[in-house]
Design goal:
By secondary structure, this protein is an all-alpha fold. It contains three helices and no strands. It has one domain (2-110). The chain is rod-shaped, with a radius of gyration of 26 Å. It starts with a helix and ends with a helix.
């Protein structure tokens, strides 16, 4: 009975590690995208009046921040889902142990 509980626990927690990795790596990938886009903004070599240059840089920087925001959004959602599913798995494991103890108690009364 204990082996079945351990097997069920492993089955329940199989994908939780992947969600944890996604939650940890998504902001870093977003920051990488931001750095790449910032490099592109400043590598363009914008020429013209100061106001036009400033406007072009501001628009470029605004677009650079999008990958970081999306990375943080993905990480937040993945973290929430991972925590929710982890709590559900723990609750299910406790219920399995209680049911196993009740079954063992019931079987002892029959003997």
């Amino acid at each position: 009975m204990e082996r079945a509980a351990v097997a069920a626990s492993i089955e329940l927690r199989r994908g939780l590690r992947s969600l944890s990795v996604i939650a940890k790596s998504a902001p870093l990938l977003g920051m990488l995208g931001t750095c790449v886009l910032m490099g592109e903004v400043f590598a363009r070599g914008i020429v013209g009046e100061k106001s036009a240059i400033t406007r072009a840089i501001i628009i470029g920087l605004r677009n650079c921040i999008l990958p970081t925001g999306l990375g943080l959004l993905v990480a937040t959602v993945a973290f929430w889902v991972q925590r929710y599913l982890s709590a559900r798995a723990e609750m299910f494991e406790v219920e399995m142990r209680v049911a196993g103890l009740e079954l063992a108690s019931w079987l002892e009364r029959i003997d």
